[in-house]
Specification:
It contains 8 helices and 12 strands. By secondary structure, it is an alpha+beta fold. The strands form 2 sheets. An 8-stranded mixed beta sheet has the order 4-3-2-6-5-1-11-12. The structure holds glycine (GLY).
Length: 305
């Protein structure tokens, strides 16, 4: 039986000023086009989420690959995960510094390795052995982020910390999809948080935290302040609710409510089930997201969830 495909993407949840809204909408729109062209031609959800995320990794607007937040020592250090809901195969990379598209390396881990997760040099060696070019970290660093890091470090030195995360800048990208064969997939990619300690890994690349996909429950991608999401295993928390009967719209709202009430966390979530029902929720002032199905597309950067 053929299913109507659908794609949902996000480009971060934070206190996005008006000045960057157009860039986020353009980036999300391009990601939708890339992912949708895969789904519309009968391609897999796995391929669609990979292609959608690559577009946002290549766009400096977002906190993924080039243009990412910098670590406290001024480097880009990235995490990504991709997961196939049909087989539960997953591939993740953490703390990579020399790859233009971490999600492509994650996809290689999924397809070409018996393992699920590689970090740092081991991940890069694996990617290089499978044909990916290694680049200099400086190719991923942009002036905007050097400036942002300098401001954050000056504030930290003055004892001012943004404990809410929501005001600190752009954020993680992700995509979830349902293909014509009724299979789900999810992918999430990030440069992590501003001024993070080298070696820190957030929610994005951890299975069940910032990314998860299972045809029997849901596909999910999260964005926001990773530590609270990791502690709550928030992606799996929401997918489990869909499996036990909640509509994705309700499950996403409940998950973000739980994030707020339990740990005062901030962020957003996109969630999709194998019937094509989706949910979008965030507790940050804004979240960039887009949805595409056969009838058309919708872009949303609303003020409130
Ligand atoms: N959600 C991105 C991070 O915390 O690393």
């Amino acid at each position: 039986m053929r299913t109507e495909p659908i794609l949902v993407v996000h480009g971060g949840a934070w206190a996005m000023p008006d000045s960057v809204v157009d860039d986020h909408q353009r980036g999300v729109q391009k990601a939708l086009e890339a992912g949708w062209s895969v789904l519309a031609s009968g391609g897999s959800a796995l391929k669609a989420v990979e292609e959608a995320v690559v577009v946002m990794e290549d766009d400096e607007t977002f906190d993924a690959a080039k243009g990412s937040f910098l670590t406290r020592d001024g480097r880009v250090q990235m995490d990504a995960l991709i997961m196939d809901g049909a087989t539960l195969r997953a591939g993740g990379v953490g703390c990579v510094e020399h790859l233009r598209n971490p999600v492509r390396a994650a996809r290689l881990v999924l397809s070409e390795s018996p393992h699920v997760y590689f970090v740092a040099e081991g991940a890069e060696r694996f990617a290089a052995e499978h044909g990916m070019k290694l680049i200099d970290n400086s190719e991923l660093v942009i002036p905007r982020e050097r400036e942002r890091l300098a401001i954050a470090q000056a504030k930290a030195a003055a004892g001012e910390h943004d404990l809410t995360f929501a005001g600190s800048g752009h954020d993680t990208v992700g995509a979830i999809a349902l293909d014509v064969n009724g299979h789900l997939a999810a992918a999430t990619s990030t440069g992590g948080t501003l001024n993070k300690a080298p070696g820190r890994v957030g929610d994005s690349s951890l299975i069940g935290c910032g990314c998860y996909a299972d045809d029997q429950s849901a596909a999910v991608s999260c964005t926001g302040w990773g530590e609270p999401m990791m502690k709550l295993v928030l992606g799996k928390w929401a997918a489990d609710r869909v499996q036990t009967g909640a509509a994705p719209e309700m499950a996403a709202r409940e998950a973000i409510g739980y994030l707020s009430s339990r740990l005062n966390g901030h962020g957003g979530m996109i969630l999709l089930d194998s019937r094509g029902r989706y949910g979008i929720a965030h507790n940050t002032p804004r979240m960039a997201w887009g949805m595409r199905h056969r009838e058309g597309s919708y872009l949303g950067i609303e003020i409130e969830s």
